[in-house]
Write a structure and sequence with these properties.
Blueprint lengths: L6 E7 L10 H9 L4 H11 L7 H8 L8 H10 L6 H10 L4 E12 H7 L9 E8 L6 E6 L4 H14 L6 E5 L5 H9 L3 E4 L4 H6 L2 E4 L7 H9 L3 H10 L3 E7 L2 E7 L11 H4 L3 H4 L3
Parallel strand pairs: 1-2, 1-5, 2-3, 5-6, 6-7, 7-9
Antiparallel strand pairs: 3-4, 8-9
Helix pairs in contact: 1-4, 4-6, 7-8
The structure holds magnesium ion.
Length: about 290
């Protein structure tokens, strides 16, 4: 088969409640015995003092209750985070890519870098994680300053930086997120002909995201990617899931894909994908 020109896509995922179930700030607060985290965040949000999603970074730097936060607390919060299932299978699939398609997977989140790195240790390499970066006092270990927060418009900047570094055009950017802190970046990705996927029923996002998938499995975000970008049919998608020992147990196709996946993912050493078997129709099906 003649080699189809490679299409290189940037796949960016949010962390809190997109790859994880809970908010990193809540986990950290529980760890430190801070009981009014939610009220503090709501207060900050209503004042519009900080970009949506940047509340935790602000509190760690400025709220006396968070003064005791050290690097190791952040890593511990990451280890305690409960994650959606099948993240390793998702990462592995994207890393392998498909005939004619290459995917670069990155996590961009306002959660502290240390939290995300610890949560995804061994699955996502640290240099594929863009989180909030703090500077620490070398003596006390206290957070001294905030280097950057990829929240709100900060996420847009982080996406653009990656596109530029990897040489990926904006129409080949795919963004996956769950909440209102993803609104800016999703509007931006849509405006530049990229693709956006919501993994929650957040009302604001549902209107903006081009696709919505509700599932406990992170692997499910491949459904709209394979359907809409790669051009696979349902049968091919089901076959792929089965090759990972996952069964699309319930797949309700409406405006939102609701997916229940049964089994725990097994990454096979080599997968023969339907596109590899079925000539070049996938390449032709892409806009
Ligand atoms: Mg989130």
């Amino acid at each position: 088969m003649a080699a189809a020109p490679f299409k290189h896509f940037l796949v960016v995922s949010d962390f809190d409640q997109t790859l994880s179930f809970n908010d990193s700030g809540q986990i950290l607060s529980d760890l430190l015995g801070i009981t009014d985290f939610r009220q503090k965040v709501d207060g900050l949000a209503s004042s519009n003092l900080v970009q949506q999603g940047a509340e935790l970074a602000y509190l760690i730097r400025h709220d006396p209750a968070f003064r005791g936060v050290r690097r190791e607390h952040l890593a511990e919060a990451g280890r305690l985070a409960s994650l959606r299932s099948d993240i390793p299978a998702l990462v592995e699939f994207l890393k392998r890519g498909l005939d004619g398609f290459q995917f670069s997977f990155y996590v961009i989140s306002a959660a502290p870098q240390e939290v995300i790195q610890a949560a995804l240790a061994g699955t996502v390499p640290p240099d594929h994680i863009v989180g909030t970066e703090f500077e620490y006092d070398p003596d006390s270990g206290e957070v001294q300053s905030i280097r950057r927060v990829p929240a709100g418009y900060g996420k847009v900047a982080a996406v653009e930086e990656l596109e530029e570094r990897l040489g990926i055009s904006p129409d080949r950017t795919i963004y996956v997120g769950d909440g209102s802190s993803d609104v800016h970046v999703m509007l931006h990705v849509n405006n530049r002909d990229g693709f956006t996927i919501a993994v929650s029923e957040n009302r604001m996002l549902a209107r903006i995201a081009q696709s919505t998938v509700i599932s406990d499995s992170a692997f499910s975000v491949l459904i709209p990617i394979l359907e809409r970008i790669v051009g696979w049919r349902s049968g091919e998608i089901r076959e792929l899931f089965e090759s990972y020992a996952l069964r699309l147990h319930e797949w309700e196709k409406a405006r939102t894909d609701r997916v229940t996946i049964v089994g725990s993912s097994v990454i096979q050493p080599q997968i023969v994908t339907p596109t590899e078997r079925g000539a070049s129709q996938a390449g032709d099906a892409v806009a």
